[in-house]
């Protein structure tokens, strides 16, 4: 039972860490961030299983994390409020060609990364952007004044 409680606590801590880290998607992690996350996984394993190195302890820990993930996904699909807490809300970063630098700072998104994402969508200048939204998954959706739209992968500048 101790392993289940430890796994549940670590699950909540890892969820909180991923929310604080930002909206960068897995494919956009820097080498350093990837190494940190892998190392964290190894460190977490020690905390979850304690001195229990048995197969049973490992199965309990992984099973608890998997069950909590499934339960969270189930509630997330049924509650808009919980969905916003778990995955985040879209954030407007450009309105009528004007960049919201405060929103960029809060989301730890560098202005140059925003420009790069726009260029990937064929947008040369943000002045032609009617609306740009940083989506909860880290992508940036652009809506231009000529009615075209697109989405580009965002990057976490934090």
UniProtKB/TrEMBL annotation:
Location within or outside the cell: Cell membrane
Name recorded for this polypeptide: DUF421 domain-containing protein
Membrane protein topology class: Multi-pass membrane protein
Domain named YetF C-terminal: residues: 78-146
Annotated transmembrane regions: 55-75
Organism: Flavimobilis rhizosphaerae
InterPro entries: DUF421 (IPR007353), UPF0702_alpha/beta_dom_sf (IPR023090)
Entries under PANTHER family matching the protein: UPF0702 TRANSMEMBRANE PROTEIN YCAP
Family classification: Belongs to the UPF0702 family.
